[in-house]
Amino acid sequence: MEQQDLPEDAFEPNSDEALQFENELLKLKMRAELGASMFEVNSDIPAGIENAFLKNILAFEKASAEKKVVTVYEKLLNPEFLPEAELKDGEVTEALLKLEELLHSYNIVVGYAKDYSDRIKYKFLTEELFDVEIDGFDIPDMFTHFNYEEFHPDHLADLISSTEEFISDWFQKSIDKDCWIISEHLILPDAKVLEKSVVMLQINNIFENTGIYTNTKYEVLDSDFTLMDDEKGMGFVEGRATYYINASNGTTECIEGPFKLYFSLSFGLWQIFHIVFPGFYY
Questions:
Q1: Do 61 and 34 touch, CB atoms closer than 8 A?
Q2: What pLDDT is attached to residue 10?
Q3: What is the pLDDT of residue 133?
Q4: Do 9 and 15 touch, CB atoms closer than 8 A?
Q5: Closest Cα partner for 106 from 127, 125, 128?
C-alpha cells in the first residue's frame, strides 16, 4: 500500500491540530508525573486556552513540589531603596511610583481599602511587605495580591461595613444560613446560647410572614470595640432604622426603632453574636 504523506501545514506550530496534539501529550505527562486523573475539558474551549491552562497546571505543580519560598524583597531581586525616614514628601511619591511599577512587573499587587498617604504606603512596602514570604516561582498571568488592611486592620470600618451589609440584607430579605456575618452561636441577655440554625429559622419565619419592605433607611450613631489580643475582641454598632411593611391586603405598617448589633472578633473576622433590630425577635 502506498504511504500517503500528511499535508505540509497539518501541524503548523500554532494550528489547532498542533495544539490539540500537544494538549494530549501534556495530559499524558500529567498522568505520568503527577498521577493526575485528567478531567474532560469543555470541547467549546479553544485549543490555545486549554494549552495555556495545562501548562500552568504543570508549572504550578512542579514549583509546588520544589516548595521554594522567598521574601518579596528577594523576589524583586533585592532592589536598592532609601528608608522612608530619609525621603522628603516629593521624593516619597516618586519612590513609591517606581516601587509599585517594580512590584507589578513581578505580578505583585497591593490594595488599599482607604486613601493613605504615599509615605504610609512606601513605609509599609519597604518595612513590612518586603519581609513577607511568598512562592518563589512564577506562573504566567497569575498575580499575588496583598491588602494593607490584612496587616493593619481598620476594626471600626469593618464593624460598620458588616452592619451595613446585615441591614441591607434584612431590608432585602436575603439573610440565610450562609450569611457569614452572623456567628454560629448567638448569646441572649440571660446567657442562653442559640445555634445559628435556630436563629435563621426565626428570621426566615419573620420574612415569610411579612410583606415587602419599602422606604427603608437607617443611620449609625455609635460604634466601638475592645481587643483582648490581636485575634479576639468585642464590639458593637448602634443606631436607628425605619422601614415600612406593605402587606398583601393593602395595609402599610411602619417599623422603626433603635438597633444594636453586638460583635465578637475571632481570627480576624467580626461576627454578630446578639441582635437588637426593629422587627426582629428571638
A1: yes
A2: 46
A3: 94
A4: yes
A5: 125
What grid cell was written down for 223?
Answer: 460604634
Q: What is the pLDDT of residues 81-102, one digit of tens each?
A: 999 999 998 899 999 999 999 9
Nearest Cα neighbor of 95 from 50, 65, 125, 116 is: 125
200 exposure class (CB count in 10 Å sphere: 0-12, 13-18, 19+): middle
Collect all residues with Cβ–Cβ distance below 8 Å to 44 and sequence separation of at least 6.
none
All structural domains of the chain: 16-66 (no CATH), 69-151 (no CATH), 155-276 (3.10.450.50)
Per-residue CA distances from 130 to 40, 89, 266 (Å): 41, 21, 27
Give the contacts of 45 (CB within 8 A, at least 6 positions apart): none
How many residues are present in the chain? Answer: 282
Taking CA atoms, 214 is separated from 113, 137, 163, 239, 252, in Å, by 31, 53, 19, 19, 10
pLDDT tens for 234-255 read 999 999 999 999 987 889 999 9
User: Cell 504566567, residue?
Assistant: 140
- What's the grid cell of residue 219? 443611620
